[in-house]
Structure prediction request, 819 residues.
Amino acid sequence: MRDEALNITNQTEASLRIVGFLCNWCSYGGADTAGVCRFRQPPLLRIVRIPCTGRMDPLFVIKALAQGADGVLVSGCHPKDCHYAVGNLYARRRLEMVGRFLPFIGIDPRRFRFTWVSASEGQRWQQVVTEFSEVIEKLGPNPGLRSHAG
Amino acid sequence: MNTLQSIVESIWDQVDVVLGWRVGYDPLHPVPTFVRDRKDIASLIWNPLCAPNLSVFLAKFFRTASQRDKKIGILAKGCDSRSLTALIQEGLVDRDRLLIVGLTCPGTVDPDALAAARTQSGPITAVAFANGMVEITSADGVECVPLDRVIERRCQRCRHAHPVLYDVVLHDFEPRPVPKDPFAHVEALENQSLEARKAFWLKELERCLRCYACRNACPLCVCQDHCLAESRTPKWVTQKDTVADKFLFHMIHTLHLAGRCTECGECERACPMKIPVGLLKEKTAQIAMDLWHYESGTDPGARPPLLSYDASVTGI
Amino acid sequence: MNNASFVSHAELADLLRRLSEQAEVWVPTRQAMTPHRPMFRPFQAGMDLDFQPMPVTSAKGVLFPQGEELLKFRKEKSLSEATVTTLLWEDPAVFRPTIVFGCRPCDARGFLVFDRAFLQGSFVDPFYKARRDKNLVVSMVCPEPDAACFCGAVGSHPADTEGSDVQMIPVKEGYVLHGLTEKGQEFLKNVENTPSQAQQEEARQVWTSAQGSVDSGASLTDDAQHFFKRFADTAFWRFHTERCLSCGVCTYLCPTCYCFTLTDETNGVHGERLRSWDACMFHHFTQEASGHNPRPTKAERFRNRVGHKFSYFPEKHGRFACCGCGRCLRHCPVGMDIRAIVRALGESEEVHD
Prediction:
């Protein structure tokens, strides 16, 4: 029954999945630019649009990875380019913290990455997604804690 | 010579209440007490069994002062004084409202370790401390155990046995020397593979009852009745009795304490199932030290790293 | 006594292994990481059994699991209608028989409080009943009551047989078992050996000395009747609960606390209705949908806990909702002593804020 549900939400169940948390003001646009320019990208990414990386709760990272996301990618505006001036400066400290914490609880830190991509950097976006997808493909599926959930 | 009682007497006119410990239901379990009556000063005690961190009551119950209020007197071991400092740093308690009686601390006793170290079995009727030894009296007689052998894990790694912030200090006990490697327990786990670490946490957290004692005993868990763990909208964790849900609850606690935790170890002490939840927070404290050279609760003027930023840093 | 059986220390594991073929046998086991805090777990071969210290958890999870699925549902979207929720009724799970082996007499009596709540009112809880019908309790004469034990003050003693089907008495070479109920007699057919004269005699002595080994002062009955007199004495409750952390250790470890909450846990279009433990010490316990909370602080919450255990429940059902195991006190991070509060109810001294 659970499989049925997965099929509804995800047609390509067998494939790996990366959850991308993208800032509305830059990386989300960057991803759009990449699409408009028809740059080829691996199909692993599922995008969650956030208002700013400052909205990024480090728990999002851990919850996604615990629930079996194969990778988590966070991308926002370059430092000093934040739409809200300093959201990404807070974010990078939090994300650095959670990235270093992951291995302590037995989660491979390579499954998590944060980076900065502006709205005009379609090419760079393609590069980021391709590189990270390669890493995730090499790592294979992430069991997370799914088998330990009810 | 100063005694606990003489110090409290000397500050009595400046305070409304003194937070301290008194004898509990048995000699092993002193309990927090709130002294408002001068005659109760005599009931105050301080020894290595006085484990509870009294600063837990400050942000939770003494947050707002009325005009007429005098100060709050509070007894604070080294770790407790760090918690006080962190509360002051975050504006949760006003320094001017506190009169801190610092206590040099030899480490607190782990009752389980004490039970294990004993050779006798009769119920304990009295415990005394002298010259680094714990003297246990029971119906079977008196026996002595070195304090070092029965100290809690949190104290084995303590870097601030001498309080960091106080108005008066009571030097009843020799402060425990700073250990060579305060993060030895963290490193021991890190020497294992990722798989082994995950297995370790799943095995430990499986015991969790979600009684939330770790959270409620934490002086810096200040969300009070609005904890994310019990919120239904948004819903982070379900009510299910699965290790995945328990795991997520502990992640909430840990990450909300990241860069703030003062390593007092109350979460771990409060846990009835003795899950080493303190380790999780120790790791975040270590990361904060590595990244920002920041040690929480040591400087009342400092800003916690995750509540601030540094625009000058480039490259990440 | 004809109905006595004997199992030696050496045979115990084998007995449990045989029993676990017919039933889930919950035993106190020692955990490698926490050697002083045994827990009840389903028996598995090679387990490290430990009957000596009082287990940190009670055995209540056997009959009242911390999280229990009551039903499943599915939300479906049809083209013409808005979301339709379909309930998928499944036959209640067929529960395996369970045996609680080697709990304390206080734990066994704890189940009697559950029985009142779940079986003997106007509504019978089918889940609890299905479990209870197939359950057997083997309690052990308490070898070592500690300073937190107070079964004596709630009308019991460390060798009490109430609520047990079988009583086991620890002797030097093993355990002498007595069948107390029909179920218990039936159970003893699994144990072939009978105790020797000397072992019987030793068991009698252990029983007698255990019976008198808890002196918890006078019964709490007299003090408990002053509860309503104190009910509105806010200063009293504030004073006595000031150090409480409002966590759930006391209620979750308590063998008699049966309060639960119902939640719908959804996952995509699927979901289940869950019954899980709740604790009256939590703020959310009485939080109403409007936002109003009739028990806004720990003083009201603790008053309710005392009232439920020592006043409302006994008035309705004729017994304390407390078995005196002392876990609430033993494991409380700040040593909240419910005995002391009940005793203070009757004291004349006024408490001022």
